[in-house]
Amino acid sequence: MPDWAPGKQAALHLYFGHHKGDSIRLAFADRLEGPWKMWTDPILPLAESLFLPADPSPDHSIPEPDWVDALDGDYLYAHVASPDVHIDEANQRLVMYYHGLLPGGDQQTRLATSTDGINFKPREPLLGPPYFRATKLDGMIYLSMWEGQLGRTRSWEGPIDLAPKELLPDEITRAPDRQIRHGHVFAHQGRLHLTFSRIGDAPERLLHCELKPAEAWSDWSFGPVSEMLRPAPGWEGGDLPVAASIMGTVMERVNELRDPALFLDQGQVWITYCGGGESGIGIARVEGL
Hints:
The protein has 2 domains: 1-130, no CATH class; 137-289, Glycosyl hydrolase domain, family 43 (Tachylectin-2, Chain A, 5 Propeller). Helices cover 1% and strands 40% of the residues. The protein has 1 helix and 20 strands. The strands form 5 sheets. Strands 13, 14, 15, 16 and 17 form a 5-stranded antiparallel sheet that branches. It is globular and about 50 Å long. 35% of the residues are buried.
């Protein structure tokens, strides 16, 4: 955290949310190894997120998103989730992408900003699909989103230039039998990386490939997929039966890793992720990136 932020609680701020949560939350520590402490108040409550604050009733006059059939009706829940926070040094502020629920069941992303790291002010415009993850490279902000869709913009506020949904080749997505759940683009030493997990993998685990951007989306190229991390016995679920993962919330501990996010701390690359399905948050050192 930058020293200019008056709400700085420690050297490290970890912003996170529950799959069906009613707020964005904060943990903080001076070392990655901890101890981590919780900020007691919401960083961004659902009621202030500009998304639906309560579960809506089905409205068949509004077209449903194309992915709802896979959730067996479990999608009309009000929530605010998937914070992606970046330091905007030029404007001495923090910017946070987050998503929530719209009427009809669609989920979209908005931007909130903060000058202290504790109080975030949401902005009205909808920017794109849920699960934005952003990184900067050569003056461009690159983004990954739900199902591995990519985007780019020159400004945190957008507008977002969305790539065609079919940009990622089947060798990465393993479509149609599987699909990317959440990916994270990350720029490091002049190269662009994508780490992700796939719905349908057995077990669902953390994967990586390199992206080679170009001016035209059609000219992008992609490196081979390699495995970064799979569940270990214990809280990550590696001692549980192996099964193909499914879309949506998981309330019990399962043999899955989800939701990777790469970051740089004092020259070392690390990755955060969810283990046991959605049972907890882990941090691991990344070598050879």
